[in-house]
Write a structure and sequence with these properties.
single chain; 204 residues; DHBP synthase; 10-stranded mixed beta sheet; 6 helices
């Protein structure tokens, strides 16, 4: 049976919730590019992200949450986490923390840490709050191809591979988020993005 990818308008966002809760894949805009999402705690659904993107299993998938306190469902917050989350979330900071057993190994490519973020995009936040559970989210494109900045671009690459695409207009694009690894002592910036190392370290 050939799967037809459904286009969802923002005012119908609630129709995406049962898709995610039943193990389906939904594409939506973030504050950088369009992302493809599955329930982070559903190993089979996350496996479908790898298959849809032709993504190597050695590449971990970041997790997005709606609020900082939702992190505890899949990760173990370290003392400096709360200060960073209060200062920069929602926003372009990805924070690496130790994972909990609730998160299947496929999300983290078998590793013991997970990359977490709250995106600064109203539609992404609305979806995360509505579903009420952490989502594994990575760029909505075939691996190695340009990231999608519109629903049309995402659909062109992933048609028949995902259940739905939420059309939230053009994503801003721009730099990927700054990444800090709190599991290292001292914490280490792994990638500098819109937030400078000085800005992040000042909060720490």
């Amino acid at each position: 049976m050939i799967m037809i990818t459904r286009l969802i308008h923002p005012e119908q966002i609630e129709t995406a919730i049962p898709i995610l809760l039943s193990g389906g894949l939904v594409v939506f805009p973030t504050d950088t590019v369009y992302g493809v999402a599955a329930l982070a705690e559903d190993a089979e659904a996350v496996a479908r992200i790898y298959a849809a993107k032709d993504r190597p299993r050695r590449m971990a998938i970041p997790v997005m949450v709606a609020e900082p306190d939702r992190v505890t469902a899949v990760a173990r917050p370290l003392p400096s986490f709360w200060a960073l989350a209060q200062a920069f979330w929602p926003g372009p900071l990805t924070i690496i923390l130790p994972k909990t057993d609730a998160l299947p190994p496929i999300v983290t490519a078998g590793g013991g840490t997970v990359a977490l973020r709250i995106p600064d995009h109203p539609l992404a936040l609305a979806l995360l709050r509505a579903v009420g559970r952490p989502l594994a989210v990575t760029s909505a494109n075939i691996s190695g191809q340009p990231p999608a900045l519109t629903a049309e671009e995402a659909r062109a690459q992933l048609e028949g591979r995902v259940e739905a695409v939420i059309d939230g207009g053009r994503a801003p694009g721009g730099q990927p988020s700054t990444i800090i690894d709190l599991t290292q002592t001292p914490p280490r910036i792994l990638r500098t993005g819109p937030l400078s190392e000085q800005a992040v370290m000042t909060v720490l």
